[in-house]
Amino acid sequence: MTLFRLNDHIHFMNLTVQLAKFTLENNETPVACIFVNKKNKNIISYGMNKTNENLNGISHAEFIAIDKLINDKNIDYNFNDIIVYVTVEPCIMCASALKQLGINYIVFGCGNERFGGNGTVLSIHNDNSTINESSSSMTIIPGILRKECIFLLRLFYYKENDTAPTPRSKKNRNLDKNEFPNIDWNLYLNELQFKKLFGHENLNNFKIKNDINECQNINWDLFENNEITAKREVNIIEYLDSLIKETNPNNNYKN
Amino acid sequence: MVKKEKNPIKIDYENCIVEGCLVQVKNNIQGNNPNLIKVWTIDINPKDSGSVIAFIRKYLQKNDPVTFTHVKRIQPFKEKNILKIILCSAQLHDENSRLLLENLLNGYNNHVNIENESIEVNDKINDNKNRRKPLPKAFQFNNLDCIYSIPLNLPPTKDIMIEWSKKFWPLNWCGNPNDQILNDMEFNINWIRSHLKNISKLASELGIQNTNKKSIPVVTSFVSPLDPTDIITTIDERENLNPLDHSIMCGIKRVSELERSRRIQNKQQDVNYLCLNFDVYTTHEPCSMCSMALIHSRIKRLIFIKPMKKTGCLKPDSGDGYCMQDNKNLNSKYEVFQWIGGEFQDIPTVSDKICC
C-alpha cells in the first residue's frame, strides 16, 4: 500500500477545489470530488454537483463520480481501495452510499452543517444500521484546505443573490475574506487520531479549534478571476480526463 | 381544516392510528427531551407589566422567529415582589446582544419620558383640544439576562408539560400539538390501498423470481401531487450495474428524467420541482441513504409496509433510531406512516442485513 502523506492530501484537494470552482459557472453549489486509487495514487474518477442540471436532489458530486466510475469499462477498481477527496463533508445520503459501497477513506475540506453524515449531524461511518461491505475501519480526514472550500460556498451565495427577484444591494453584502469559523475537530476525530494524522506540532490547533498549520493561509491564486484562471478551469476537466486515460492500466480508450 | 370531531377520517389520536390501518411513525424521543432555546429576560415591578408588554409588542415580538403562544411570558416571584418577563428569543438577538438590548430598553424609556413630558406641556397649553394619548409609562428593570432555556414546542401530554413547566419555564397547555397535525392531514384510504396493492403484487412476483435471480423484492411508487394518476413505479436494481440503485433511488432518478424530457418537449405548463410534495409508497422501510434522499427530494409523505429492524431509518426502534423524517438536526421533514392493515403483509421478506 502506498503511503499517503499530508502533502498528498493537500495536492489532491487542490485539484478538487479547482474542480468545484468550475461548478460556479453553471450555477451549481460548488462541491466537487475526486476518487484516487490508494494503491498507486492514480485518479480514477471525479464528479461535480449537478442537482440543478439534473433536476433532482441526489445528483451530488459523489454520486456523479460513482456513476462515472461504474460506467467506465476501462478502469479496474475496487471500492475498498478508493480515497474520496471532497470539498464539503459528504451529506448523510452520500456518507451512507460510500459506506455501502465499501469505500472507507474520506478526506474533506469543510464540514456540512446542515446535512453532514461523517460527524457534523450524524456519524454514518460509525453506525450499525448502514451495512458496510468492507471489513476495514473507516478513515475520516477533515479540514484539508478548509478555508478554500468555505470560500467557494461564500462565492456561490454572494453571486446567487444577483439572480434573486429582489437582489439586495451590493453595499449590504460582503464577501468576507478574513474571518473563518473555528473547526470543532472533536466532531470527526479524537485527540489521539488527530495527533496521528497531523503530528504533535499541530496538537494545539486541535485544542483551540484552529486549522492545521499547513492550511492556515488561504491560497488566493485558486480564486483570482483573470483569463488565465478561466482557462485553467476549462482545463481542469481535460487535465483530469487525460490523467485517468494515461494511468489506467487497460488503456483501451478509443480516441 | 375541519374540527377534530367533524373529521370524516377515523383517527385514534392516542395511538396515532388512522382508519385502523395506518400508524404514524415519528420521533417520540422528543417526549422527554425538549428542543430548548435560550431567551432574554428582565425583572420588573408588577405595576409596570402593562408598559413592558407594550414595549415588547412594539419592538420585539413582530420580528421574533419564535412564537411564545405555548409559554406564559410572565413568571411571578411573589416573595421578591417581582415579575420575570421574557423579552425575546436568542434567535432574534443572540447571547452577545446584551448591549443592544440595554440600549433598546433605555432608549425606549428615555423616549417615553420625553414624549410624555411634551404631551403634558401641550395639554396645558391646548386645554382639552387636540389632546394626545399619553404613551405607556417608562419602567425600571433589573437582571437583563440570557440564562433561561424554554422548550420550543409543547410535549405530547399534559403530565410532561407540568414537569417541563417546573424544570424550565411555565407553559400553557393547548392540547397535544400532534392531534392537530394529524387532524389536518389528508387521507384517501382507497387510493392508498390501491397503490400498496400495486407495489406488493409486484414485490411478490419479484420474490418468486428471486429463487433464480439475485434481485431484491423491494418496490416503490412515486405519485405526483399535480396528477395522482401519474404514478412512477420502480424496483430494486442493485444487481444490474449500480449497487446504489435501491428502488427509491431509481424512483427519484426516474421522476427527474421524465421531468427533463417534459421540459425539453415543453408539453405541460405545470412542472415538478424535484419530488416536491410527492406521495411515496414503498414495500420495505428505507435505509439511511434512501431516507435521506427523500429529504433532499422534498417529498410530502412516505407509506411503507414492512419495517426493517436493523437497517431501517424511520421507526424510532429501527436501526440506530435516526427517525430521518423527523430528526431535529435536519431542517426538513416528511410524514411517515406504516401500513398495519390486514392486507399486503405477505410481501416477501428481505434479509435483515440488506439496506432497502
TrEMBL record, chain A:
Protein's name in the database: CMP/dCMP-type deaminase domain-containing protein
Cited InterPro entries: APOBEC/CMP_deaminase_Zn-bd, CMP_dCMP_dom, Cytidine_deaminase-like
Coiled coil: none
Superkingdom of this protein's organism: Eukaryota
PROSITE patterns listed in its UniProt record: CYT_DCMP_DEAMINASES_1, CYT_DCMP_DEAMINASES_2
Domain (CMP/dCMP-type deaminase): residue spans on this chain: 7-122
Keywords, alphabetical: Hydrolase, Metal-binding, Zinc
GO biological process: tRNA wobble adenosine to inosine editing
SUPFAM superfamilies: Cytidine deaminase-like
Gene Ontology cellular component annotations, sorted alphabetically: cytoplasm; nucleus; tRNA-specific adenosine-34 deaminase complex
An MF annotation (GO) of this entry: zinc ion binding
Gene3D superfamilies membership: Cytidine Deaminase, domain 2
UniProtKB/TrEMBL annotation, chain B:
A Gene Ontology biological process term: tRNA wobble adenosine to inosine editing
Pfam families: dCMP_cyt_deam_1
Keywords: tRNA processing
GO MF annotation terms: tRNA-specific adenosine-34 deaminase activity
PROSITE patterns xref list: CYT_DCMP_DEAMINASES_2
Any GO CC annotation of this UniProt entry: nucleus
InterPro entries referenced in this protein's UniProt entry, alphabetically: CMP_dCMP_dom (IPR002125), Cytidine_deaminase-like (IPR016193)
Keyword flag tRNA processing: yes
Recorded family membership: Belongs to the cytidine and deoxycytidylate deaminase family. ADAT3 subfamily.
Name of the protein described by the UniProt record: CMP/dCMP-type deaminase domain-containing protein
Source species of the chain: Tetrapisispora phaffii (strain ATCC 24235 / CBS 4417 / NBRC 1672 / NRRL Y-8282 / UCD 70-5) (Yeast)
Lineage of producing organism: Eukaryota, Fungi, Dikarya, Ascomycota, Saccharomycotina
